Amino acid sequence: MKEDSSSASEGSRSDAPSVAARDSEDSSDATDRRIHLGKEEGENVPFEQLERMRQHGGITKQQIRQIVERAKASKFKRDNKNRPMEVSSKRPVPRLREVVPGVKRDSRDPRFDSLSGKLDTDRFRKRYAFLYDEQLPAEREEIKNTLQKAKGADRKKELQGQLTRVQQQIREEQARRQKQVIDTEYKKREKAAVKEGKKVFFPKRSDKKRQELVRRYEELKVAGRLEKAMAKRRRKNALKDHRYIPSGRKMVD
C-alpha cells in the first residue's frame, strides 16, 4: 500500500508540469484570440486605449464591444452654446496632405488698364463738377461758421488751415476752367481758319496768359474788386524789387 501511494504521488508530481504547460498554452492562445478579435472589432478605438488594455493583461471581446459602443456614443458637445465645438486633436495626420491653394487676387490700377477705356478728361470733369460747385463751397461755409464759434488758439489755427486749403482748391478749379475756356476759343478759331483755307496758327503760351489776365481783370471789374486786386499786385511787385536794393554799404577807412 505504501508503494502504491508513493507511486501515485510520483505520477501526480510528474503530471503537474504538463498540466501547467497546457494551461499556459491555453491562456496564451486565448490572449492571442482576444487580441485578434480586438484588431477586428476595435479598428476605430484609439491606439492609446488599446495599448493600455494590452499592458493590463489583454483585451476581451466584451471589452472591445464596450469601447466601440462608447466611442460611437460619445459626441463632442459644447459646454456653452456661445462657445465653439471642441474637436479632438488626436487624429492621425495623412501622409499626403491636401493643400487648398488660396485665390490669388490680381490688383489692377484703372488708370493704366486698357479695360477701363481711354481717359476722357472733359467727361471726367463734367461728372465730378459737383465737388467744386456744391460740396467744396458748402464745406467752406461750414468751416467759417465753426471758426467763428471756436475757442482756443490751436483749434482756430487748425480751422483756418482747413479753410485756406478749401479756398485754394476752389481757386485752382476756377483758374483751370478759365484756361479751358481760352483753349476752346483758340481751337474754334483754328478750325474756322482751316475751313477758310488759311494757315493753322499755334498761339504762344504768353498770348494765352495775356488773354487769361484780361479775362480775369474784366471779372474783377464787374465784381468791384479790381482796385483791391491791383493794389495787392503792386505790393507784391514792390517786394520783389526790394530784394535787389542793397540794405547798406560798407564803410571804407
TrEMBL record:
The keyword Isomerase does not apply. Residues 22-42, 67-84, 95-112, 238-253 have a biased composition (Basic and acidic residues). GO terms for biological process: maturation of SSU-rRNA from tricistronic rRNA transcript (SSU-rRNA, 5.8S rRNA, LSU-rRNA). Residues 1-114, 231-253 are annotated as: Disordered. GO terms for cellular component: 90S preribosome; nucleolus. The keyword Nucleus applies. Component of the 90S pre-ribosome involved in the maturation of rRNAs. Required for early cleavages of the pre-RNAs in the 40S ribosomal subunit maturation pathway. Associates with 90S and pre-40S pre-ribosomal particles. It comes from Coccomyxa viridis. Belongs to the RRP36 family. This is rRNA biogenesis protein RRP36. It is found in: Nucleus, Nucleolus. Keywords: Nucleus, Ribonucleoprotein, Ribosome biogenesis, rRNA processing. Residues 1-18 have a biased composition (Low complexity). The lineage of its organism: Eukaryota, Viridiplantae, Chlorophyta, core chlorophytes, Trebouxiophyceae.
